[in-house]
Amino acid sequence: MSISFTGIHNLRLSSEKHEQIGSYYTPDGDIGSGMKDVTYVDISYDVSDDKSGKDHDKYIEALSNANKFSLINSQKPYNVHIHMKLDEIDNDVIEFKNVQFKLNNQPIAFNHDNDYKLFQYLADMTRDRLKKADGITENDKKMLKAVNDGITQAAMDYFECN
């Protein structure tokens, strides 16, 4: 799908969810095992600046603030690919969520204060900008919300530990 009124073009979303056996630490410190839900969400789009906005500039600024210029895809510098993996265990022993992100196929994590602007950019895109795209379905909105919730979880985990 192409979005011509902003700097966002060629938006593509996909997701996959399945169960698999997983291990975890119990509250007593023992190792438990059980089924866990694993969700993958991929969001890909091209970003540019146009007369309606500075979408590419905002992307570059977010990478700059986090000192993450190495995340720019040298083959496709205007392409943004967000990948999220979410592991969830919820049973009578433990409730557990682990979220991992990749940006342009490189792992990213909320490990430092300077990562805030990058994750804020990703949150703004998934919470607001991409939801307004032409042709977005209710299922697409659910995928965007799942990624936005994962970003919130990563931020909460960071601020709880620091």
Structure description:
There is one protein chain. The chain is of the alpha+beta class and 162 residues long. The chain has helices at 55-65, 116-129, 138-161, and strands spanning 8-25, 31-47, 49-50, 53-54, 79-90, 95-103, 106-108. It is 30% helix and 39% strand. The strands form 2 sheets. The protein has a 5-stranded antiparallel beta sheet with strand order 1-2-5-6-7. Strands 3-4 form a two-stranded antiparallel ribbon. A hairpin with a 5-residue loop joins strand 1 and strand 2 (31-47). The termini are far apart. The model is unreliable at 1-5 (pLDDT under 50).
List its traits.
3 helices; five-stranded antiparallel β-sheet; globular; disordered N terminus; alpha+beta; single chain
The termini sit apart by 41 Å
| Number of spatially distinct domains | 1
Would you report the number of β strands?
7
Percentage of residues in strands: 35-45%
User: Could you describe the largest sheet, including whether it forms a barrel?
Assistant: 5 strands, antiparallel
Outline the low-pLDDT stretches: 1-5
With strands numbered from the N-terminus, the spatial order across the biggest sheet is 1-2-5-6-7
- Fraction of helical residues: 25-40%
Radius of gyration: 17 Å
